[in-house]
Design goal:
This protein is an alpha/beta fold. The chain is built from 18 helices and 19 strands. Helix 4 crosses helix 10. The structure holds flavin-adenine dinucleotide.
Amino acid sequence: MTAKKVLIVGAGLGGLATALRLRRRGYEVEMVEMYRQAGGRLNQLTSGGFTFDMAPTFFSMSYHFDEFVRDAGIEMPFRFVQIDPLYRVNFRGKDRWYTVYRDLDRLAGQFEDIEPGFRERMGRFLASSGVLFDDVEKGVLSKNFMSLPDFMVQMTRLPVKHVPKVMRSVWSEMSRYFTSYEVRVIFSLVSFFLGATPFDTPAVYTLLSYTEMVHDGYHNVDGGMYRIVEGLLRAAEKSGIKINYNVTICGFDGPGRRNRAFIDTDGRRWEGDIFVVNADAAMFRGRVFRRPAFTDEKLDRMQWTLAPLTMYLGVKGKMDNIHHHNYFLGDRDYESYSKGIFRNKVSLEKPYYYVNANAIFNPQSAPVGCENLFILVPVPDLRFKPDWSDRERIADAVIRDLSARTGHNIEANLMTRVVLDPVDWQNMFGLYRGSGLGLGHKMTQVGGFRPSNRDEVFSNVWYTGASTIPGTGLPMVIISSKLTVQRIENEAATI
Ligand SMILES: Cc1cc2nc3c(=O)[nH]c(=O)nc-3n(C[C@H](O)[C@H](O)[C@H](O)COP(=O)(O)OP(=O)(O)OC[C@H]3O[C@@H](n4cnc5c(N)ncnc54)[C@H](O)[C@@H]3O)c2cc1C
């Protein structure tokens, strides 16, 4: 019997991981990718002698990568290194920097003066988020859901003590443990890792605080994040997986309940017995399969994560006052800023932003004596701000602000500068309205409510990646590939 052929749309991390898992199981695998190189959002950009990580700069739950390489039968293709301290935070107008250490005693040294009893409070908070983490990882993140009722039944098995955390926001959960404004802001930044704000993120996600502070922490990749993709590509090539670049799927040929082929923008057919979609699971159903439940009108009503305005700066000279991961926040209007920013209701003249100085950890990413800066400004998506003709002006303002706060004249020392706005992100990787992390994670968009990893109509189409289960971020996408492959193994015989 000849091996079944799998055609995968998208060579992001989700597509690549699924390809390698399936190849190990004997499937013939071919991939199509709209961008000129693999990795999706986990990509790389070079300019003026600098090599920039394009989006992800660290990841958590590294053991999911260990599980993946074992399952795919490949060598670990990169070396990851645990980060400690995790990051530093500065509030506009203040000289003080807060450093977030994993060690509770050192951490308490940073906050005890502004939050008396910090160590004890943080200990209680982490104990509570740890219990939550264990239950959610076992009961939700690692599970496939066959249907909404199946999901609801599985949820009833979770301890009822977690129910209030479904109702409260991350911000109100923080406020139950901490009184200091700065402490609440800093430890609710985890919401931004989900592409949302602490005011609209359910308190269930405080489990992320446990992952960063206690559990597995955060990891950097030796040589830069793109080493992950380069390693997977080597493994893919070795195992005979073919990847076709600059191919954008826009149509299909499936008159009944089986898809026969995808059609690209040049009219070419891409056939297979089984299809896996790594493109956005909601948008693909709407724009390619033309499903009435996923029209643009309906997609626009869903919750989408923040859009990125990203900047890649090569800077002459070493900057003293910068760490590998840094958050530059505003002054005391955090709540109104957070609530307004995604709806384009606050000015982007003085935005909050994140800076990664990659050369501190990976010197080869910049010429000797220079800094490699990646700046991420969370901004409104294209529903709320379609026109980005002001992007260079916003970038100028960020550069001025960063110069003032680090004491390094970045503008005068600029060797290279690339700015990408939500339109670029939309066009490069097919991100809906330029939303950076895909579908949001409010309670009605997770688990059985999230677009399923099995297609509703075609028996031979599955999905993998950030907008299907379990959610966004590199470890979640690795889990997603595992869940998708489990379903294919269980269900493909009956297609
Ligand atoms: C600015 C930013 C910073 C981030 N930082 C972090 C971080 O520090 N840590 C972390 O864990 N996560 C981070 N993330 C999230 C992380 O990047 C994503 O969750 C993850 O990379 C998604 O992988 P994926 O395979 O699901 O999707 P993608 O990476 O989007 O891959 C999907 C692929 O499908 C292709 N495609 C789409 N449509 C089509 C089509 N019609 N035809 C053909 N190909 C198509 C795309 O080009 C893409 O290559 C960040 C994301 C952004 C945007």
